[in-house]
Amino acid sequence: MARVTIQHVAQAAGVSPSTVSNFLNDRQGRMVAATRARIEAAIAELGYRPNRAARQLRNGKTQTVGLVVPSVGNPFWGAFAHEVEVAALALGCSVLLCNSERDPERERRYVEELWEDGVRSIILCTSLPSLDHVSHVIEEGLRLVTFDRPAQPNDPQSVVSISIDNNVGGQVATAHLLELGHTSIAFVSGSIRSVNRSARYRGYCDALEAAGLSVADMPQWTGMDASHFGDVEAAEVGRAAARDLFADPTNAPTAVVAINDMTALGFCRGLRDLGLKVGRDVSVIGFDDIILADLYDPPLTSVRQPITRMAQLAVSEAIERGSNESTDPGSSVLLRPELVVRESTEHVPSAARP
Amino acid sequence: MARVTIQHVAQAAGVSPSTVSNFLNDRQGRMVAATRARIEAAIAELGYRPNRAARQLRNGKTQTVGLVVPSVGNPFWGAFAHEVEVAALALGCSVLLCNSERDPERERRYVEELWEDGVRSIILCTSLPSLDHVSHVIEEGLRLVTFDRPAQPNDPQSVVSISIDNNVGGQVATAHLLELGHTSIAFVSGSIRSVNRSARYRGYCDALEAAGLSVADMPQWTGMDASHFGDVEAAEVGRAAARDLFADPTNAPTAVVAINDMTALGFCRGLRDLGLKVGRDVSVIGFDDIILADLYDPPLTSVRQPITRMAQLAVSEAIERGSNESTDPGSSVLLRPELVVRESTEHVPSAARP
DNA sequence: CTGAAAGCGCTAACAA
DNA sequence: TTGTTAGCGCTTTCAG
């Protein structure tokens, strides 16, 4: 059977194509109930489904929302992508998924391509300090929602940001360790050259200082070089950090704040390589609270991001704004992270006490 | 600046639009070198990019490949989606991602919608015994590649399947446990109502029988009911299985083959709840070899699926077939799984020996 | 070897 | 309140 078009529906309903089009586009006020009913019936009977390509060609836009994540290979982003897809589906949209590998150039290319393909709403999971690489598209009218990156002073007006308050997250994580009696706490991250990471780091510093401790006195791990930017390697970073930090036992921390759960898990693995026991010997706390945090042995203490809620927010900002104007453009939504205490953090080991 | 169309290019190159179109569609034999060069120059100068919507409207197809996975929330599928995206990118295609939650109805709807939207190539990660729910679209010309589901006798001719040989996988896993001296080996799965799962189960049975053991003598876990079909809950399944199997210690296994790594990890977690130690007390083996298998404590023995290779195959079958006709339609590619031995499997504990 | 013209399915002026 | 019409940007016969 051939494709059924708006013409067929019009014919079957005894009206003109434009009336059907009006019907389809929620301008039903413009027609009398009987007409509406006839169109409805015709659509149902013929099993008509509007052709997206034609619609897009005509309107210059899709019903698709673009989602650019660092990498779905990382369980956190996989879970987030999943939530985004669920939320978008509820609003009748599909999701075009792209992995940026945290490469600014790939981010730019993807955003541009999506734009060229008629995608007018993009959720960009980036944490680059600047949005310059995509600002020209924003100026043309792209509705951009950044995720995991609070708004920065120089961001274009129209951008909305969804993220947790990473500074608070860093503080909460560190404070938890301090309360357990730790005074030698390292911060482990592949690179803190991104706004959310540096916010977490600042939270860590703030908490330390509030406790009268100096960051300079903490065991330092200078991380891997910037070329290891991908999220797939997050676990590798943690593992390397464990190896390096404990190479000199006199300078080894009793606790660690990891930039995310994958890094934390990698760190735990590294500890294991060294014959150290997570919790008993070294406390480890991560960020994100991915499913695996609870599955791990020992279950990992983590700072939870409420991804379901965040995905809903991101999608509704991306899709519905313009019609709803629910949030002020240029604003940041900063959700409160939640500390989930499990067994990877324990009181400072007695041997290390004064 | 306004959109640059094929017209502009034509004008700039001093030719007609149709010539440019010919150029674009690799019919360059139809024009003299000088013309070609002028068009190339014009495209470069104007920064022309063809409009996909128009192209699609005209051709009735996209450059997009649809990917339907059970759920990117499961790290295995996240990793696979990532590999697919990489492979597609290399071929100039984008990926439209859909989560079926293993619901046949959602699978059907997604496949239909993708088709309606002009997507002509779909990688469907399903393990439903029948493809009936999408066969009408296949008849209309959909290029379908199934993943994780070997071809079945009644499948439409044109379908190509990519998967590992799950039967062999099940055998290898079980044989490994047998070699370690285990004789009480349970099989843990949420449901084996899918072709790949039942193949793994059969492999398990085969190996047992080859060793002169009877499946009926093994501790049985009858799984959760079919409503728990999602991949997100895989870990829950494992955890529940551990609780149930060890409720009656006289009937507890010394080793377990889990249907996948997430279930295996959940099982390990369940063991921990019971104060049992993975490896020492109970050996656990999973399937997939997700990144986390190596990160876990103890690192998980697993049957690896070569996802990078599989993703490449799936994408090239989905996109390039028709031009290439590389593989016979209707065929199955069955890759060999690889046993990765780590520390979650050990010799049968002495207490359990005769 | 290249150009002119028709039309894919839909929408938004504008007319009636 | 509904119909007519003119394209959106591209490809593809069919003439030149």
Automatic annotation (TrEMBL), chains A, B:
Residues 319-338 are annotated as: Disordered. It comes from the Bacteria. Residues 4-59 form the HTH lacI-type domain. Keywords: DNA-binding, Transcription, Transcription regulation. GO terms for molecular function: DNA-binding transcription factor activity; transcription cis-regulatory region binding. Pfam families: LacI (PF00356), Peripla_BP_3 (PF13377). The keyword DNA-binding applies. This is LacI family transcriptional regulator. It comes from Salinibacterium amurskyense.
